[in-house]
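In response to reviewer comment 3 from the previous cycle, which asked for concrete evidence that the modeling workflow produces usable outputs, we include below a single protein chain processed end to end. The sequence was submitted unchanged, and the resulting structure tokens are shown without manual editing.
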Amino acid sequence: LRCCAGRSRKGSGSAGTLEVGRTDSDSSEYSSDDEGGGVYADHEWDSFFFPQAAREMLGCAAADDEQGLHRTPSFTQESGFMPPLERHSEAKDHIIKERAFPDLTMDELRRALPNDSVIMGYLEIFSQAFDIETTDWFDEPGDLQVRRAKFTMPVPQEVPAALAKLISVPEQSKATLMLGYSFPSDSEALVLLQQCTHDVPYGEYFRVHECMSFRPAPSGGGLVYDKWTWIRWVKDLPWIVGAMRPITETKTKAGSPAG
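The workflow returned the following structure tokens.
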């Protein structure tokens, strides 16, 4: 018995069908014992979560969040790697500066962000993801709303010759995306993305972070958009593959979606 509500889109490419149900961990969770892995074994956690009636019968009521849903420990673990809820300050990571969206208002953005189409569109268009499963939204400190998506995606095959002798890159990989948003004021929206690509070599040693800020345009029409992209290393690489670090950081920024 489980009560981990979520949504899944199964199938190859974007041709899958959207199913609404209790599917937070229907078929497989990712597994790893590595520190900072943020990954999870098959139904490792979900078997502990029972519907309310069963919990009452067993006398072991568990705490629910405000929507009456459970957040699994694996969700909490991964959300713990998310960056602070603020505009990123590193100039070297500032890859988009004040791009204009003249036809978008803050109210429209506020209504759009919670919709499934935002995370599904991002994953299917930019990541070419499939077998997508998402959770519902959960509250984090600072009025941050967060949800998780698990999916499979193709992996770029361009590997420098020096690294190609040491590592083998799979054609596709399971991945986890955390999407968060908040409105710290009436004049700004912050959107945070965090991704871990599990099956690439040392993919669980780092998280890709993106911070997006939307503010009213100085001209008074629409919004302007800034974006920062960077990598947080959660575990040190073995010295023999230390060259992966600058290459990974450079390729991540170069491949970051422009919009």
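DSSP finds six helices and ten strands in the chain. We consider this sufficient to address the reviewer's concern, and the full set will be provided in the supplementary archive.
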